[in-house]
Amino acid sequence: MTNSSATFGKVAAEPEPIELDWTKTALLIIDMQRDFMEPGGFGETLGNDVSQLARAVKPIAAVLNAARDTGMLVVHTREGHLPDLSDAPPAKVERGAPSLRIGDPGPMGRILIRGEAGHDIIPELYPLDSEVVIDKPGKGAFYATELSDVLQKYGIENLLVCGVTTEVCVNTTVREANDRGYRCVVLSDGCASYFPEFHEMGLKMIKAQGGIFGWVTDSAAVLEALLPETSKIAV
Ligand code: TIU
Fold first, then answer.
1. How far is CA 148 from CA 15, 62, 153, 186, 209, in A?
2. pLDDT of residue 232 exceeding 90
3. What is the DSSP letter of 14?
């Protein structure tokens, strides 16, 4: 997939299968950061049970490995703020009653601050130097980031989307991407929420009404569709 000629694969999905040109498709992994996944981070300070998110790691790792084998563009995002909080609106910092607020010192460094241990991506999904990492101050990956420029530069039209949490940063990003003309194919087992019912509804909202925001698939279907590409590399 390192050359520019089209290679198509059909992915089983809802509301219907989708044919993707892999050369115009990127894997977009949303916010698989220690701050959301591990005790002591931002997610837990908001009162959440972070163990709910662990189920997404293995499916994402499997698809990430396949994407790497095929040479697909891989983009990781990280939610977080500058150390001086100049990109963190007071409305975000002050909201709710977390045990620690954004910027406060926690067990993994300052909560949700760029460069701190908690802000980093979990080791199981750590980006390669060759992969794109987008730092974002908001829930959507397009707001106040260079993501649009990166996707345009690589000629991307389709996004395989996974990460956390389903109804917050994944949904916001899918809605932003859909409005910008990208076909979004969301991996149901590659997303997770602190609230299982929000996960389920978050996916339903995407695929309802004929796929109002995109398609929903799972890691097995993506791997099956990608297999001919990975075996091309293997021979
Ligand atoms: N709290 C919650 O569910 N999510 C976030 O704050 N950010 C992301 O989803 N990444």
1. 26, 26, 9, 18, 26
2. no
3. B
Which one-letter amino acid corresponds to residue 199?
H
Q: Answer yes or no: 31 catalytic.
A: yes
On the question of pLDDT at 4 being above 90, the answer is no
Confidence at residue 233, expressed as pLDDT on a 0 to 100 scale: 62
Answer left, alpha or beta for residue 134, where phi above 0 means left and psi between -120 and 50 means alpha: beta
Expressed in angstroms and rounded, the spacing between residue 6 Cα and the centre of ligand 1 is 35
Q: Are 108 and 41 in contact (CB under 8 A)?
A: yes
User: Which one of 48, 52, 92, 164 would you pick to mutate in the ligand 1 pocket, going by the greatest count of ligand atoms within 8 A of its CB?
Assistant: 164
**How big is the chain by its Cα radius of gyration, in Å?**
17
Provide the sign of the torsion angle of the four alpha carbons 114, 117, 122, 125, taken in this order. Answer: positive
Indicate the helix (H) or strand (E) that contains 211. Answer: helix 196-211
Residue bearing tokens 């990109």: 87
Q: If you measure from the C-alpha of residue 134 to the centroid of ligand 1, how many angstroms do you get, rounded to a whole number?
A: 16
Q: Catalytic site residue 135? A: no
pTM here is 0.96
Calculated CA dihedral for residues 45, 50, 52, 58, nearest 10 degrees: 140
- Spell out which residues line ligand 1, taking CB within 6 angstroms: 31, 36, 43, 46, 79, 139, 164-165, 168-169, 194
